[in-house]
Amino acid sequence: MINLAIIGTNWISEKFARAALETERFVIRGVYSRGLEKAQQFGGPLGATLFFDTLESLGNCESIDAVYIASPNSLHCEQAIQLMRAGKHVICEKPMASNLKEATSMFAVAQEQNVILMEAFKTAYLPNFIEAKKALANIGKLHKAHLTYCQYSSRYQKYLDGENPNTFNPAFSNGSIMDIGFYSVAAAVELFGAPSRVQASAHLLESGVDAHGSVLLNYPDFDVTLSHSKVSNSYSTSEVQGEEASLLLPDFSECLGFDKQLRSGEHIHCRVAQGENSMMYEAEAFAQMIANDRMDPHATQRSLEIARIITLVREQTGVSFPADNP
């Protein structure tokens, strides 16, 4: 069993912790928070017995094998590097870094320390998304794809009311492309690989982060359009268009199934069994990397390419973070 510690006491941390337990390959051994009482309240129901209020004490604890990091984006790089240098395996919530430079540094440290570093991009490991990727080979020559993920943020009203939530604060390396938009970029990279060209536009808030935007990824024979927003909801279906058929992907980030619309008019619904907690599969992949004592080269390259694209998007749209100029 892998002794896992959790950084972050929010809903996503709890969901991942439950997912890790569901794999039966992890024990939730510890929790880090700036306040020990909060760590205890969060970790107790999960079975944790070790609680930390400094990263140093967490890194020095020999009872911890691996750490899940779900702190604000701007802290991912520093925390991951400190823990990897202490010999801990790390799975870091998406996006794993503020920019490409940080992501490159993180993987370099993982290799130097012979530990596992993985970005927690759950979609790539979902059974139905994997089936959709396989189906690309059967829809003819690709020409167009449109991936859309737009979700009105529960924190947006706080921003409108004059508060400064992390979600819309550049100090925490946040905004639409770093949050909601990540899923569209990451899904495109997983499905189609690295684009030859990236073109982006966005509408910025007064805080300096993007509220919503669009990205055009050019490939040699086809284009992929990405739509993202944290200030509006989308109810449209993402799709991949081939000459023989199109794949329709409702809510591709969770990917509970997909549809194949053939040019002949035939409509095929595709779905395989998938667990309720969608984070279970990324937790299983992380455990397998630890067991193999080897990072998955595909996952590493995917994370670096995602970081490259998002960094380019921010450069083109004028979104900058303190982390870009440390």
UniProtKB/TrEMBL annotation:
InterPro entries associated with the record: Gfo/Idh/MocA-like_OxRdtase_N, GFO_IDH_MocA-like_dom, NAD(P)-bd_dom_sf
Molecular functions per Gene Ontology: nucleotide binding
Domain GFO/IDH/MocA-like oxidoreductase: 132-247
Domain called Gfo/Idh/MocA-like oxidoreductase N-terminal: residue spans: 2-120
Domain of life: Bacteria
Residues spanning the signal sequence: none
PANTHER family the UniProt entry points to: PTHR43054, SCYLLO-INOSITOL 2-DEHYDROGENASE (NADP(+)) IOLU
Protein name from the UniProt record: Predicted dehydrogenase
